[in-house]
Amino acid sequence: MEQYDVICIGGGPAGLAAALSARENGAGRVCIIERDMELGGILQQCIHKGFGLQIFGEDLSGPEYAQRFINEVRNSDIEVKTDTMVLEITPQKTVYTLNPQQGYNILQAKALILSMGCRERTRGALAIPGSRPAGVLTAGAAQRLVNIEGCRIGRKIVILGSGDIGLIMARRMSLEGAKVLAVAEIMPFSSGLTRNIVQCLEDFQIPLLLQHTVSEIRGRNRLESLIISKVDDKLQTIPGTEKEYICDTLLLSVGLLPEIELPFASGITLDKRSRGPRVNESMETSIPGIFACGNVAHVHDLVDYVTEESRKAGRSAACYVRGELKPAAAINIVAGEGIAYVLPQEIRPANCREFFELFFRVAKVYTNAGVNVFINDKKIKSYHKKHMAPGEMEKLKIKPEMLIAAESIKLEIEQISC
């Protein structure tokens, strides 16, 4: 059994940043386990620009952003195990792995960092009526096929869902010579970043159909057409609004879900709102010494935020190994009216040296609204926001002195009259 101070499960942007941070903050033997053949995670197929503006002050592609951290790892003594699948983790921080070269292995860590990222919702989760022809795939799968495998996947394309990957693939497919007929979104607002709506749809004159969904898939061997219908306020299709789109490809960009199989099986408490593990101010889960960061904790809109959060997790893991994290009483953080989720879900003031940040997403689009902070059900602070949307993560800072005698914290959105 190999012994490590810190093991990071996942070698994408979260795992890379967390491992480097753990090593820089005094952790001894550090290891990254990645199931793919190479490090970098999802960034390797994100060849568009837009990464690194906050971390590096540069406009980088996904592979360029990942390579900077890969180079740092290669220049360090951090061990890397690629092409390695993690089968199981235990509360005692034992990791069971399998790879073609070494077979079955058992690793033991003093601290674990979960950085496995997220996965896409598939057609099976949507239960769209119709046949099962070729040509229906997730936007992320299409991105890999086009950008890495060099495949052409279709000529007439419809995209369901306005997530960032779907928006980016609308532009990518247009540049590949395909015709993107429309992007349908079941909600009355887009779930993608505003900049992607402008750069990927408006600049290419691709229509965005809000409050629309695919109500039927037609085709025998290959997708032949789709029926798109309007939906009401209860997200039910409206009879008589059906319109047929002749196409050969449907890309699904209908949400991302944290990879929670390993934490769920190990008994880590999950949060129903973020759908990832519940974490505290140190990114520590309900099992002491097991940390979570990046998209396995909650789905981010910017990789720069992933890096910042993962550096905190790596630093916290190193502190845990040295016995410096205090198992103090925690304050619960509640997502109130208008808040989709908030992270972290609890805070131990004893481990907060200065201010700490709360990350949250709103449940719908807000214009001219206030974010109210309640401590022990008393409003102590209000932050004015001109615009907030579910596709863009929000954050605010809380000073430790605000937590004196606090038992709970609640965030709530208040619409301000014009």
Question: In summary, what is this structure?
Answer:
The protein has 418 residues and is an alpha/beta fold. It contains 8 helices and 25 strands.
Report, as a whole number of angstroms, the end-to-end distance. Answer: 64 Å
Q: Count of DSSP E strands? A: 25
CATH H level, superfamily name of the largest domain: FAD/NAD(P)-binding domain
Number of domains: 3
Nearest-angstrom radius of gyration? 22 Å
SSE order and pairing:
Blueprint (H helix, E strand, L loop, with lengths): L1 E8 L3 H12 L5 E4 L28 H13 L4 E3 L3 E5 L4 E6 L3 E12 L3 E3 L2 H4 L9 E3 H9 L8 E5 L3 H12 L3 E7 L8 H8 L6 E3 L1 E8 L3 E8 L12 E4 L2 E4 L3 E3 L2 H5 L24 E3 L10 H19 L9 E5 L3 E5 L2 E2 L8 E7 L3 E10 L2 E11 L5 E5 L9 E8 L3
Parallel strand pairs: 1-2, 1-6, 2-3, 6-17, 8-15, 9-10, 9-15, 10-11, 18-25
Antiparallel strand pairs: 4-5, 5-6, 7-16, 12-13, 13-14, 18-20, 19-21, 21-24, 22-23, 22-25
Describe the structure in your own words.
The protein is of the alpha/beta class and 418 residues long. It folds into three domains: 1-120 and 256-325, FAD/NAD(P)-binding domain (3-Layer(bba) Sandwich); 122-254, FAD/NAD(P)-binding domain (3-Layer(bba) Sandwich); 328-418, Immunoglobulin-like. Helix content is 20%, strand content 34%. The protein has eight helices and 25 strands. Strands 1, 2, 3, 4, 5, 6 and 17 form a seven-stranded mixed beta sheet that branches. A hairpin with a 2-residue loop joins strand 22 (366-375) and strand 23 (378-388). Helix 1 packs parallel to helix 2. The protein is globular, with a radius of gyration of 22 Å. The N and C termini lie far apart (64 Å).
